[in-house]
Amino acid sequence: MQSAGIEALRGEPITIVEVGPRDGLQNEPAQVATADKVAFINLLSAAKVPVIEVSAFVSPKWVPQMADAAEVFQRIARRSDIRYTALVPNSRGLERALAVGVREIAVFAAASESFSRRNINQSIDESLATYRDVCAQATAAGVRVRGYLSTAFGCPYEGAVSIEAVVRRVEQLLDLGVFEVAVSDTIGIAHPGAVTATLDAILARVPATHVALHFHDTRGTALANVLAGLLSGIRTFDASAGGLGGCPYAPGAAGNLATDDLVFMLDGLGMRSGVDAHALDAATTFIGSRLDHALPSRVVQARRASRSA
Ligand code: HMG
Ligand code: MG
Q: Full-prediction pTM beyond 0.90?
């Protein structure tokens, strides 16, 4: 049954959401120069990653690494076949995004109260009330809104999170008018069994086209989780070039699933992501050269090793 399931994936289209410039760089202790962020995003565009999360219009006091969101948006070369998006926590963030012509944003809620409080200084219900206004204002301006649900598989402060809570929050986000919810494993604690169980519960209530998956690779399960998601019918996955990333309000969270590793697996499965793996390598190599540590992507490490052999 599994092998028939895997064979059926061949030829299927997949959407990769590249979150490296936001989720990746927000967690780098060193500030990456604005010009380097712009060059990185332009290289990701050249690799034809269909969606790029460019930055976050959040409080610069909370996340100084994203303080240059407006300037980055103004300086990147936007291609018409690529969607460029950004996190927005409130109306102030939306105003800043609209001022630089952003056409798609993402709001970000959590499934656990403690994480919500630490990340955005609001309870979950307060954040949903804030996002109701943001979604209404964005829709009136013709801007599409994505939703994130953090801590969907576990919380760094509370531990286990119930599947019922996850399903309820996914539905509440969709009720606000978001076009999809990225069900997020903030601390990289999910495994394929948890992914399948959570998706079974969500997909009993919500179409798969409204659900994306966002994995951090803290425990090395992210690619296995993607496969579980694929077999459950999910076709949109977040990833970051080289495996950059983490979350400043999730202690110990490692980088996102590496886009390079995801593309390698999807290409192997014969799925159609549209991403040019060679050009992606150039983007990853570039941003890696601007950081003082190696990037965790296994595919990138394997390529380097075979080049130097
Ligand atoms: P607050 O301190 O409760 O609210 O922050 P505030 O209204 O008192 O604002 C504080 C200051 O920030 C004020 O400035 C505001 O004007 C300013 P002051 O008056 O002190 O000079 N401010 C802003 N400035 C620019 N743009 C704005 C903005 N809003 C307020 N939009 C707030 C509340 C939500 C703003 C804050 O907590 C915040 O920005 N949090 C964002 C934290 C964040 O970015 N976390 C990482 C992203 S989430 C993530 O990584 C998870 C994800 O990857 C999925 C997963 O893996 O789970 C998506
Ligand atoms: Mg994340």
A: yes
61 ligand 1 Cβ < 6 A: yes
Q: Is any ligand 1 atom within 6 A of the Cβ of residue 307?
A: no
Strand extents, DSSP E, 166-308? 181-185, 211-215, 236-239
User: Could you tell me which residues come within 8 angstroms of residue 18 by beta carbon, excluding any fewer than 6 positions away?
Assistant: 44, 49, 51, 52, 53, 238, 239, 240, 241, 259
Nearest residue to 156 via CA among 247, 290, 49: 247
Ligand 1 centroid to 192 CA: how many Å? Answer: 32
Number of separate domains in the chain: 1
Write the CATH number for 296: 3.20.20.70
Encoded tokens for 247: 């979350």
Domain with 170 in it: 2-308
The two three-digit tokens of residue 59, written as one number = 């409080």
The mean pLDDT values, 10 residues at a time, for the chain of 309 residues are 82 98 91 97 98 98 97 98 98 98 98 98 98 98 98 97 98 98 97 98 98 96 98 98 77 85 98 98 96 90 87
229 vs 152: CA distance, rounded Å: 14
| Stretch (H or E) spanning 251 | none
Please state, in angstroms and rounded to a whole number, the distance separating the CA atoms of residues 255 and 215.
9
What is the C-alpha separation between 21 and 25, in angstroms, rounded? 5
Q: How many whole angstroms separate alpha carbon 21 and alpha carbon 8?
A: 33
How far is it, in rounded angstroms, from Cα 254 to Cα 215?
A: 10
User: 143 CA distance to ligand 1 centroid (A)?
Assistant: 20
